[in-house]
Each structure stands twice: as structure tokens, then as C-alpha cells.
Design brief:
Layout: E1 4-5, E2 20-29, E3 36-37, E4 43-44, E5 52-54, E6 58-62, E7 67-69, E8 78-88, E9 91-95, E10 135-136, E11 138-141, E12 147-150, H1 167-171, E13 194-196, H2 198-207, H3 214-221, E14 228-229, E15 241-249, H4 256-263
Parallel strand pairs: 12-13
Antiparallel strand pairs: 1-14, 2-5, 2-6, 2-15, 3-4, 6-7, 8-9, 8-15, 9-10, 11-12
Region (Disordered): 103-132
Biased composition (Acidic residues): 122-132
Length: 272
């Protein structure tokens, strides 16, 4: 069920991409969860333990070139990073952990109301660092003139892109798109790519696919270079749909430093 491909002739394979493993799970909201809204009536994902429900995970292995399902013993793999991802009304929400297995932030639903800023949620104690909260997808412009996707970055919108790139439109809803002004666009083919935290990028790719087919379709997208779904824009962006992505590595194949360099685009953008 191949749906991914590239429209750019310059997307050539890089022989030095690292190998890694990752698990994919669907994430849903418990029917008994109390909906949370900010003062601006923006929906916020559940924070209380048990209100986020995960499906059985599927393990994949990316060998630097292709991705396939794997039956590797996960006890022999090293954990790298994990993110839970929700989509709602054009915004991606991220949590750096498994929201189905642990409390998010202060773990309170506020009787359906949330303080006006993310920082206010833990302003009365020192638990914010130990218990991070949900945060919107953000971007930072790297010195290489590529963007870095994470939560601890500076702006909600993509800072830079090229006009004929496919991945920004297929992976990012309008609230995360680059501004229309000329400064947000470049004609330099070496600039305007996307890097970022690996589970975040994998989550964006999974969320661009139909939920019922994402386990079958995603491996075709994680290639060298990564490929973009050729589907109607927004196919996978159902309101309050979620995924959990956990990344692992085999010390015999890859180091943590290799994955960090990959995320930072030191060998070129993950999505050119």
C-alpha cells in the first residue's frame, strides 16, 4: 500500500543515515475524560492518568534506507526518546513521554478550565521540569537555514520553506504553516528543510496518514530520504486523533550521538 513519494529531483539518498527502531501506537481519549479548555476556549489534551488510552504498539526497524516491521527483542534495545501527539483544529499538541502511562503536568483537569498560559499550570510548585505539560508544536530556525521541530523552541509557524516543497503542505496544517511574507520563503535548494526531534517528525508523518492504514503505510514513508504521502491534504487530521511514538536504538548499530546529529541535520535535512 505505497502512498509515499517525492516530487523533488534533488532528494538523493545519503548513505550515512543512522538506523533506529520505533514503536507506533494509536492514542485516544477515554470516554469519561473531562474536556479541558483554555480561557480562549482552545481544547487541551487530557492530563489526568488514565484519560489517554493507547493501542497495542507495533515495532518498526529503519536500517538507514528502508523501514519494516520488526520482531526484535525490545529488552535488548536502548530507549532514546518518546512523544505523545494529538491533533485538534489544525494544531499539534506534544508531550515528551507516554501520556497513556503517566500523569501529564500537574495531572489535574481544572474542572474543564485551564490557566491562560502553559507556564501557569505549574506556577505554584517546582514540578514543571519533572512533569512537563502538553505544548504546541513549535519550530526554531537553525544556522543551516533549516527548521527544527520540537516543543522547547520559539515559534508555532514554520520559519522558512521553499515555494514548491510538498512536505510542508502535507505534514503541517495552516496554523503551523510559514507566514505569507517573503522573508519566510527561500529559493536556495539547500535551505528550507525540516529537522527535529525524531519522535515528533515520525508522529507528524503518521498523523498525515489515514488512521486505519497508518501501520501499513508509514514504513514506505520512512526511507532515505523520507518520502511524503501523496494523499489529499488533511486526510489524517481528525479532531482529537493521537499517536505515541517511541524511538530506540541498537548499540551495535547506532549511538545516541548518531541520532542526535541526525535530528540536528548535520548530514542534511531529514525532510529536504
Amino acid at each position: 500500500m505505497a502512498v509515499c513519494g517525492s516530487l523533488l529531483a534533488l532528494d538523493e539518498a545519503d548513505p550515512d543515515k543512522p538506523s533506529f527502531y520505533f514503536t507506533l501506537q494509536a492514542l485516544t481519549i477515554h470516554p469519561g475524560a473531562t474536556p479541558i479548555y483554555s480561557a480562549q476556549r482552545r481544547w487541551w489534551p487530557p492530563k489526568r492518568l488514565g484519560e489517554n488510552v493507547a493501542s497495542q504498539h507495533v515495532l518498526f526497524h529503519h536500517d538507514g534506507e528502508t523501514t519494516e516491521r520488526s520482531d526484535a527483542d525490545m529488552n535488548e534495545l536502548e530507549h532514546y526518546k518518546e512523544f505523545s501527539v494529538y491533533h485538534s483544529h489544525g494544531v499539534f499538541w506534544l508531550y515528551p513521554g507516554d501520556a497513556s502511562a503517566e500523569q501529564v503536568g500537574d495531572g489535574r483537569d481544572g474542572h474543564g478550565r485551564l490557566p491562560p498560559t502553559n507556564a501557569d499550570a505549574n506556577s505554584d510548585d517546582d514540578t514543571e521540569e519533572d512533569n512537563p505539560d502538553w505544548a504546541m508544536l513549535n519550530f526554531e530556525l537553525l544556522p543551516s537555514r533549516s527548521s527544527y521541530a520540537s516543543t522547547n523552541t520559539r515559534q508555532r509557524r514554520l520559519p522558512l520553506r521553499r515555494r514548491h516543497q510538498l512536505w510542508p503542505d502535507q505534514l503541517l496544517p495552516d496554523p503551523h504553516q510559514a507566514e505569507a511574507e517573503a522573508a519566510s520563503y527561500t529559493s536556495n535548494p539547500e535551505h528550507g528543510g525540516l529537522n527535529g526531534e525524531l519522535p515528533v517528525l515520525l508522529g507528524l508523518m503518521a498523523m498525515a496518514l489515514p488512521q486505519q492504514h497508518m501501520f501499513a503505510m508509514l514504513p514506505d514513508c520512512i526511507a532515505n530520504p523520507w518520502l511524503v504521502p501523496h494523499l489529499p491534504r488533511g486526510t489524517g487530521w481528525q479532531d482529537k486523533r493521537g499517536v505515541i511514538i517511541s524511538v530506540y536504538y541498537d548499540q551495535a548499530e547506532t549511538s545516541e550521538g548518531d541520532l542526535r546529529s541526525y535530528e540536528e541535520g548535520q548530514g542534511g535535512s531529514i525532510l529536504p
